[in-house]
UniProtKB/TrEMBL annotation, chain A:
Coiled coil: none
Name assigned to this protein: Lipopolysaccharide export system ATP-binding protein LptB
Entry-linked Pfam families: ABC_tran, BCA_ABC_TP_C
All residue ranges annotated as the ABC transporter domain in the record: 5-238
UniProtKB/TrEMBL annotation, chain B:
Membrane-crossing residue ranges in chain numbering: 6-29, 61-79, 91-110, 139-160, 188-209, 229-249, 261-278
InterPro entries: ABC_transp_permease, BCAA_transport_permease
Protein's UniProt name: High-affinity branched-chain amino acid transport system permease protein LivH
Domain of life: Bacteria
Family per similarity comment: Belongs to the binding-protein-dependent transport system permease family. LivHM subfamily.
Cellular localization per UniProt: Cell membrane
GO molecular function: transmembrane transporter activity
Cellular component annotations (GO), alphabetically ordered: plasma membrane
GO biological process terms, semicolon-separated: amino acid transport
PANTHER family associated with the record: AMINO ACID ABC TRANSPORTER PERMEASE PROTEIN, BRANCHED-CHAIN AMINO ACID TRANSPORT SYSTEM PERMEASE PROTEIN LIVH
Topology relative to the membrane: Multi-pass membrane protein
Organism: Pseudoprimorskyibacter insulae
Keywords, sorted A to Z: Amino-acid transport, Cell membrane, Membrane, Transmembrane, Transmembrane helix, Transport
Amino acid sequence: MSSILKLDGLSRSFGAVTVADSLSYELAQGEALGVIGPNGAGKTSMFNLITGTLSPDAGRVEFAGRDVTSQSAASRSRMGIARSFQVPQPFSGLTVFENAMIAATQSAGLTGHEAETLCLTVLDQTELLNKANKLAGGLTLLDRKRLELTRALCAKPKLLLLDEIAGGLTEAECKSLVQTIRDIHASGVSIIWIEHVVHALLAVVERLVVIDFGRKIAEGDPHEVMDSREVKEIYLGIEADA
Amino acid sequence: MDWLNAIVQGTLLGGLYALFAAGLSLIFGVMRLVNIAHGDLIVLAAYLGLTTTVALGVHPLLALIVVVPAMAAIGYALQRGILNQTLGDDLLPPLLVTFGISVILQNALLEVYTADPQKMNAGALETASFDLGGLTLGWLPVLTMLVAIAVIAGLQWVFYRTPLGRAFRATSDNQDIAQLMGLNKAHVFGLAMALALAVTAIAGLFLGIRTSFDPSIGGGRLIFGFEAVIIGGLGNLWGTLAGGVILGVAQTIGAKIDPGWQLLAGHIVFLLILAVRPNGLFPRVAA
């Protein structure tokens, strides 16, 4: 299987703070990858580097076989990279449906009836259909999270980046979210998922990467990685021999 | 009856001010850009209209067919070429750059058209009038008001009923997220400025038919435009129309009390409203 995304020696720092330190890994077409790491480890910055809102000091980002390091965020979005935000950022002055339509028309490049049909299908899938004409600014946290996912899906992504989308959800909500993400994955979309809710993550991803201080410190089978000494020491903050 | 007449004439004058202001309001609404060169762009449109009517021998209103697309093209080029580079977290660079553009435009117009006041000849339209319940209304002010209402209704429709308007609102709402959704911010802003200057073209033509103009009057038109926008509330297009009307009525009533008070009365009403409602009468954009 060819790789959909390849990070090659990505580095970026803000003064003394390093958010990415020669970060390299590949994501296979159709793979679901989980990313964990302590707060401030550079996980969200990694997404910013992939989507193009942050440019690296060094290194390259390859998407679908093309070097996209110098491409704008807008053109990467049109190529098929979509993301959700940890803190939902809807266009609050637009309705839920209009939010979805922006992604469908601008990012996925659909028009008219085709765009509307996609949005309605996705809104149905994310259980927002009955709120389609509400202003996004008035939604509850759960619905804002659903809208994040909706917008990302309406962009018809090849690669979906999920940033702590399960945080703050109840157990039941989390379960239905996991099912939705599984369905998306099953439809062939490659996924990178940053998540602190580890059991939700492990229910979906096939591989796990651990990041700390912008460096990849472990990578491999999710359960093996979770049991490894590095993760216990650095991510969970437990002395391995304590 | 005289007072009623002053109020009605002022209301109609407000239509012209709303046309001055609509472009400013649109630009501020979409990209938070305060365009100091707006008044000079109105004057530029008036001169382009003059050149078109003289060169082609057509009625000034027909010159719109040439001037509107010309100003839209200038707007897109100006935004993509210069203004986009000045936009950021800091409000100062766009202020300074548009101020510079204002100075350049004024001097270029002086160079090309000289300082002599000019006027467009609209024939019978300039003086034609009709009686309405004892008041005499000029066709030109009435037409100006109707066009202002149509322009604002049109802009409102574009904003809330079209994919372009959706893109404007999304970009205005959150530029960074808009880019992540595939919107090319530079292009969207270019289109917004093109639309704003298309409206400015209409404003310039009606200005040039109504009164004589010279390269130095842009600043005054800018002030009227600003006052109308701020009285109405930032980013609210119908509010801008209301702001224009309030300003127009204040000016004609001021002129009725004493002819020298026309401008002063407008400014005083503006300051009073600013003191009582700093966000304007119908604010849309939260400060």
